[in-house]
Design goal:
Elements (H helix, E strand, L loop, with lengths): L4 H25 L9 H6 L1 H14 L3 H7 L2 H24 L6 H29 L16 H38 L19
Helix pairs in contact: 1-4, 1-6, 1-7, 4-6, 5-6
Amino acid sequence: MRLSPRSVFLLVLVSMMSMIVWGHVDAKADVPARDTRNVTKAATTEPAAKAAAKKMSEDELTCGQEIAADAEVPEKLGRLMAHVATNMEVHARWAATDPRGTRERDGLLAIAREYHAMADAAMRAAVAMRAMKDLPQTPHDPARLDRAGQTRWMREKIALQLEFARLLVAHAEVSKRVLAQLESHADGAAGVGAEAGRPPTKR
């Protein structure tokens, strides 16, 4: 089954948002339970314990605050998708100046529409994430956390993130080479590779 660009983007976005919440839960799950075996000792240290708990609560971000802080992820993805879509539209108009470029124009414009849809979805997600900043904290029961399952999920997520990062860097390197060629032929008359002045439309 082949996924559309929009579906791939949404899967990546859901994965990133899920990571934020689960990372917050894991941190809480690691807090040791209070020792109640010595009630007298616990009673004498109650003020100090309350002060420490209050301090930790003040320093710790809520789930909503963590999600809001990571709104830059879909925002930057959205900006990239919109930027690439714009160039696809420019290239489509260029291709259409030749009668043989009709299919290329139509194909690029169809892809550009999907890229714009991904950009719009990303920006909406960023707005929704920032709107959670003031959401009150919700108790998370450590006993209900599937730590083994979450560990497996986190390993796979990290692998996917690194793979995606390498892909983006590789595409950026190609774009840098094309940019250098374009700048060395500023008048657009000299050839860039096999075709004069061709900008990267699929990167």
